[in-house]
Amino acid sequence: MLVRARPGRATHFEDVVPSGGRALPGASPIAVDLAAGMRVVRRLALHLLSFETLFVLFLFAGRFKADPRFSWVPVDITLLFFLASFAVGVTVIWREQIYLPGLRLVMMFMAFLLWATASYAWTPGPLYGFSKLSELLSLNLWSLMGGALVIANRRIRLVRFLALLTLFATLIAVDWISFYGIGNFTELGFIKSGDYLGAGTVIGAGAIVAFTVLIYAPPLTLRWILAGLLFGLLTLTLFVIGGRSPIVALALAMLMPMAVHVRLAEGRLLLHRSQILVLLVILGGVAGVVWAIASGEMTWTLMRFGFLFSQGAEDSSTTHRLSYFAFALKGWAQAPLMGHGIGSFGIMYLGFDFRTFPHNIFLEALFETGILGLALLAACFVLALRRLGLDRLRHEPVLLCVLMLFSASFLFAMMSGALNEVRFLWTTLGLLLVRPLALVLPDRITNR
Hints:
Strand order of the largest sheet: 1-2
Helix content: 55-70%
Order of helices and strands: HHHHHHHHHEEHHHHHHHH
Keywords: Ligase, Membrane, Transmembrane, Transmembrane helix
Shape: globular
Radius of gyration: 24 Å
Strand content: under 5%
Transmembrane segments: 44-64, 70-93, 105-122, 134-151, 158-177, 197-217, 224-241, 247-264, 276-294, 361-385, 397-418, 424-442
Domain O-antigen ligase-related: 230-377
Protein name: O-antigen ligase family protein
Structural class: mainly alpha
Organism: Marinimicrococcus flavescens
């Protein structure tokens, strides 16, 4: 997609370089080079000084806000970027008007939040319930609104968001690898204050974007090579940090382009270039894992996968999750229609009012808000997913990338997440409503 920047204001070089950034006919070679440089700088500035930058920093503030390198910030970083992105986002919505498909999704999610708020009246865990409800009504609701009402309304915003997401994931991956490379991966820069699953979620998302570029970019071009290198770096990091679900989510997401491009014609299976590349990447990954096991160069992630298959080896995280699932189902049967109330799982499972959840958002909604709450939550997913079609997924790589990101986030939410701690899931749910190519309005790069 070609994007034209709007003419800027006059510069000090107006005599040879007009405000639009193009050199006048007959200008000297220096002026021509200066004009090209100004266009690059202006475009980079417009991307970095954008709503999407603030929104990415808001979504993933938990990955770096407690790092000592940011101790000089006098306020909570999550709150800072929440307020900043909210202010800019509301301005964008006012200027570009309300995107109706996104509004319908937001209204449905608010219906679920309204029922969750009502359930606070009968919860036995008011402390955790209030904390969870506060986050749902502020941070999580805005995560959905930013994706559904702001970014999904303009495809250029979505492309910019994906690029900035990948940049952020790369910074975290480099921080991990730099410490792991010197054999000291217990002191972890950006990740020092965060959990490995949260870091893996971000890095896995960046790997998905890089993988999408890799399978659709023309082979052997600079973009194709850079995407491959970036995908390799991010995937390697996932095998280092210890999270299993991000690896599984990435692997499943990589299979989606193969499924989307399955075509049968006259008794033949037609192959698509993306399917061949997916197979090559998967085979390369399997070969790498086999080599690591055979050579004894086991990373922490591979060792944790080994716990699942080792006889007599106890995997405490898996055991705890299974106990959470069983308790949630058993407890739901005691209050099937209305649930036990928001934030009730912790006090009923532990015996005291503390942050604990089933590590599965559907079981969490079922236990705390009952069948009614689960139905409202499920309706949100149906409303977003029903706009997808096989033809769109085959011809819109950006939409396919969003679906891959959503599937990875959804898998994480079903294995490790809590309703108030899966902000990226709500964002990707909103991004599924991105304006179809046939209905794209003229996009312009703005700094709002």
